[in-house]
Design brief:
Elements lengths: L2 H5 L6 E4 L3 E5 L2 E2 L5 E5 L11 H22 L3 E5 L9 E7 L3 E4 L2 E4 L13 E2 L2 H11 L5
Antiparallel strand pairs: 1-2, 2-4, 3-9, 4-6, 5-6, 7-8
């Protein structure tokens, strides 16, 4: 796995694996259920991914949207590509909702609703919370 995937806590944060992508629990949660969708390659430009990785995004995003719909009943979903600090191709996947959502003792509101997500107000998860939320989300991808 590339350095960006490892920086986001792999393997502890791993939720689902695809041929060209991994889905990780985002260790800082601006909204409950926030994920990182990361390319498994060493590409640092979206256009440098192989065609098969682009094609697989259809399957991966459908799985993410179905899973997060079941887990947090989001109203909108934001896929944000921020590759300034972590260079390998990845998206921050932020389910958006009005109000709050709760799971495993965490209650997280969408501080930016209905505008852009407020990434600065993300709840930083500890190891136990990562394990609990990861265990909660994984079955939604089965």
């Amino acid at each position: 796995m590339n350095a960006t995937i490892r920086k986001f806590g792999y393997p502890a944060t791993l939720i689902a694996t695809f041929d060209h992508w991994v889905v990780l629990l985002r260790p800082a949660q601006p909204t409950l259920g926030s994920l990182v969708l990361a390319a498994r390659s060493d590409a640092t430009a979206f256009g440098d991914l192989p065609a098969e990785a682009h094609a697989e995004l259809k399957t991966v995003t459908a799985a993410i949207e179905a899973a997060l719909s079941g887990a947090v009943d989001y109203a909108k979903i934001n896929y944000i590509m921020l590759m300034m600090v972590d260079p390998h191709v990845h998206f921050h996947v932020i389910p958006r909702y009005e109000g709050e959502r709760s799971a495993h003792g965490l209650t997280i509101g969408d501080a930016g609703w209905p505008a852009q997500p407020d990434l600065g107000k993300a709840v930083k998860l500890d190891e136990a919370q990562i394990a609990a939320l990861g265990g909660w989300l994984k079955p939604y991808f089965a």
